[in-house]
Design a protein that fits this description.
The complex is a heterodimer of chains A (448) and B (339). By secondary structure, chain A is α/β, with parallel strands linked by helices. Among the domains of chain A are: 167 residues, NADH-ubiquinone oxidoreductase 51kDa subunit (Rossmann fold, 3-Layer(aba) Sandwich), CATH 3.40.50; 71 residues, no CATH class. Chain A is 27% helix and 19% strand. In chain A, the strands form four sheets. A five-stranded mixed sheet of chain A has the order 1-14-13-16-15. Chain B contains 13 helices and no strands. The chains are: A alpha/beta (448), B mainly alpha (339).
Chain lengths: 448, 339
């Protein structure tokens, strides 16, 4: 890179919300106990829901497949616990709608040994075999999006992958799962990278880490293996750097074209926890039965980073960590993009990266919405240089077509930076979500 | 199991903790030292003028809201800010009924007619002042000498002039540095103008205090600092060129930036968020245009002062600046259409 290059290891605009990671960043990952009954919905990933292959009354062992993938953009689900299938019924999910699911009652005295499959050796297995193994392990993006990882890793005909970027940014405030995974599962991460290098054919792997996790970067550098061309790159702290597009710009200085994928600039990005899980599971042919979650927030008594079985009911999680009496809101994921929980009967899924509990005095909620004063704070915050102020005004007038054609609404990835900075408290990102869905519905109606 | 009531809200669940009324309130706070200096320099006259415009603006806002069956928006402080700004741009011995009329125009025609806060095309206070300049050209150019010994014992009689009566001027009137230069070719020391030892509008004389208020707002991130910097640099550079061509005819650049309402206008008027461009790149151009127009009006126009009209013209073209200076959307080669 020449000295005249203006590339500054970060992306344009963005915001600096308070990190609030101090409470949990130093706490090692702890194993969470099994709940009596685990509730496992089949809609844990983007794509076709898995199909349940167990019946009521059937005994299942930990790690056994209980729902199989339907089609290519889908992954199977494995039992998180040895127990008995009590019920196959509709279960509540975070989205508010119900989905088919499996209720498994844990055997109280079981050793909870994990069922193993065939070992996939990165040295001998072919790329397609590894991809198949990743799908069979039920692996999805653990950063929160829960998109099936094998789909993302598949480099289509005519495309090449030059760089594999491992996303250890974790730019959401409060969350420290990726930080702990990097500190505690370094070997798993490098094992995972070996698999991914083979699958993608990448010439180099770069682990991107934000400056507030320097200890993790130092640790990963210190145990760096010699057999793979991998490097660690520390970038300045800024939200939303963990977004795929922003990360690619921060590390390589390239921009992913509007509407395109990272592969359009010869890059594949994978979340670091996903990589660690691949490195942890594939050598044993296991499937995902648990994941690391940060449980924090001002209303939580035993804050920490926990390895929690998939399907653990949220109610059980909160009882176990203890919460203060007047809780007001619970968020699944980080505070910038995570949805609020409406029902305590939902359970932990593969996409849950954090649980945040806020007491009534911690919620900065306001009903006082002022008119837009065109201060331009949102324009200076938007990482993709949209004009949220103008988009917000158009949304009020329901000019969805103009929002899309003239103002690139569809490029918005709903990071929430505009809403965060707005002094008039205009719920801009909520307007945009609504406008996008209304626009899509209108398009669909027009086509018929 | 105990019952838990959960609130549902949309992300993001954390916000920066700044609010529009807080911004307006802090702009008022930042203006208060300069206003207080105005009272110190011009006595109770100045206080009466500023109070009349502030109260007039707030009352007008309140009654217009009630009249149009809307909740009163007085609590967002924007009406108070517009009123106070108007008062600070008027001469200290300005008849109060005219000042009150100006504040009504400020809110009604400067702001409310466009749809209230956030929709005004022009800076409301300057709309009010432009109206007063056109309607009462004599009263608005009748100045008071600063630091008169009787300023805290008596009030100029013109202040109490009855509506539509020609005010009698009994006060010791003084020329502003700008009019002194324009009409009599008498220059004032930049140091005196910076310290406020000169005639002028109620709140514009002490440029140092105004600059400190601006630094406070810029530090609190409640003002786009690029606008005053751009205006002042442009004015300085442009007038320096003419000063170098002929220093007998043209004033020195230091005189230009410290005289008249330039600082007040650049720091508190041109930075009105609603009527200035939205992009950080656009405000540089906006400031440069205001700076150029100010110098052009001051040097060759009929009036000694040009800041007000320069800012109003800048406001008028700011939507076009937004259209011209458009950021490139990430991952595209397309530039956004803005208006």
């Amino acid at each position: 890179m020449s000295i005249l290059s203006l590339h500054t290891n970060t992306f344009k605009n963005g915001i600096h919300p308070p990190e609030n990671k101090e409470d949990t960043r130093g706490l090692a990952i702890r194993q969470f106990p099994f709940a009596n009954e685990l509730i496992i919905p089949v809609t844990q990933h983007i794509g076709a829901p898995a199909e349940i292959i167990v019946r009521e009354g059937q005994e299942v062992s930990r790690g056994q497949m209980i729902a199989k993938a339907v089609g290519y953009v889908s992954v199977p689900i494995h039992s998180p616990v040895s127990g008995i299938v009590k019920k196959v019924a509709l279960v509540p999910t975070i989205s508010g709608s119900k989905a088919p699911g499996v209720f498994i009652q844990a055997f109280p005295s079981s050793g909870q040994e994990v069922a193993e499959g065939y070992c996939i050796d990165y040295k001998t297995a072919s790329a397609d075999e590894i991809l198949k193994a990743i799908q069979d392990a039920g692996i999805v993006g653990l950063g929160g999006a829960a998109f099936p990882t094998h789909v993302k890793l598949k480099v289509p005909e005519g495309k090449v992958c030059d760089e594999l970027i491992i996303n250890g940014i974790e730019c959401e405030p409060y969350l420290t799962t990726d930080h702990r995974v990097m500190l505690e599962q370094g070997d798993d991460i490098y094992m995972g990278i070996r698999y991914l290098m083979k699958v993608t054919g990448a010439k180099a792997a770069i682990i991107g880490i934000e400056g507030n996790k320097q200890d993790a970067a130092d640790y990963l550098n210190s145990i760096k293996p010699d057999d793979i061309p991998v490097s660690v790159k520390v970038v300045p702290v800024k939200y939303p750097q963990g977004s795929e597009k922003m990360l690619i710009t921060a590390i390589l200085g390239k921009e992913v074209p509007s509407g395109g994928l990272p592969l359009d600039v010869n890059v594949v990005t994978v979340n670091i926890a996903t990589v660690a899980e691949i490195g942890r599971l594939l050598p044993f042919g296991r499937g995902i039965q648990e994941r690391v979650i940060t449980i924090t927030g001002p209303a939580v008594k035993k804050k920490g980073n926990y390895r929690i079985p998939i399907g653990t009911p949220l109610r059980f999680v909160l009882d176990h960590v203890g919460i203060v009496d007047d809780i007001a809101e619970i968020y699944m994921g980080g505070p910038m993009m995570g949805p609020a929980v409406a029902d305590l009967d939902i359970s932990i899924t593969k996409g849950t990266s954090g649980i945040l509990v806020f007491g009534s005095k911690d919620v900065v909620h306001t009903d006082n919405i002022y008119p837009c004063i065109k201060c331009g704070a949102c324009v200076d915050a938007c990482p993709i240089s949209l004009n949220p102020s103008k988009l917000g005004i158009l949304a009020k007038f329901e000019s969805y077509d103009r929002m899309v054609t003239d103002f690139n609404l569809m490029d918005c990835f709903e990071c929430g930076s505009c809403s965060y900075v707005c002094p008039s408290h205009i719920p801009l990102v909520q307007y945009f979500r609504l406008s996008k869905s209304r626009y899509k519905r209108k398009q669909a109606l027009n086509q018929n | 199991m105990r019952k838990i009531t959960l609130n549902i809200s949309t992300s993001p669940h954390v916000i920066i903790g700044l609010s529009t009324d807080t911004i307006m309130k802090h702009v008022v706070y930042a203006l208060l030292p300069a206003a207080a200096f105005g009272v110190y320099a011009f006595g109770w006259n100045a206080l009466l003028v500023m109070m009349t415009t502030s109260v007039g603006a707030v009352l007008t806002e309140h009654f217009l809201c009630k009249w149009s069956d809307k909740p009163s928006t007085v609590s967002d402080y924007s009406a108070l800010l517009a009123g106070l700004l108007l008062g600070m741009t008027l001469p200290p011995i300005f008849p109060l009924w005219m000042a009150f009329l100006g504040s009504v125009i400020t809110i009604a025609l400067g702001k409310f007619i466009f749809g209230g806060l956030g929709n005004n095309v022009f800076n409301p206070a300057l709309v009010g002042r432009a109206f007063l300049q056109a309607a009462f050209p004599v009263a608005i150019t009748t100045w008071l000498q600063p630091f008169l010994p009787e300023r805290f014992y008596s009030v100029a009689s013109s202040i109490y002039a009855w509506p539509f009566m020609r005010p009698t001027v009994d006060a010791v009137s003084g020329a502003t540095p700008l009019s002194a230069f324009k009409f009599d070719k008498v220059s004032t020391e930049a140091y005196d103008m910076a310290m406020g030892i000169c005639s002028g509008s109620v709140g514009e004389t002490s440029t140092v205090i105004i600059i400190l208020g601006g630094i406070y707002l810029a530090w609190r991130k409640m003002m786009n600092w690029r606008i005053p910097i751009s205006i002042i640099l442009t004015v300085f550079a442009f007038s320096a060129v003419f000063y170098m061509i002929d220093d007998k005819v043209y004033p020195s650049p230091f005189f230009t930036i410290f005289s008249g309402g330039l600082m007040l206008g650049a720091i508190f008027m041109a930075t009105d968020m609603v009527s200035s461009p939205i992009t950080s790149a656009g405000v540089w151009l906006y400031g440069a245009i205001i700076g150029l127009l100010t110098v052009v009006i001051r040097l060759w126009g009929g009036l000694p002062e040009g800041v007000m009209y320069a800012i109003l013209l800048g406001n008028a073209i700011s939507p076009h600046i937004d259209n011209l200076v458009r950021p490139r959307v990430y991952g595209t080669t397309k530039k956004l259409t803005v208006s």
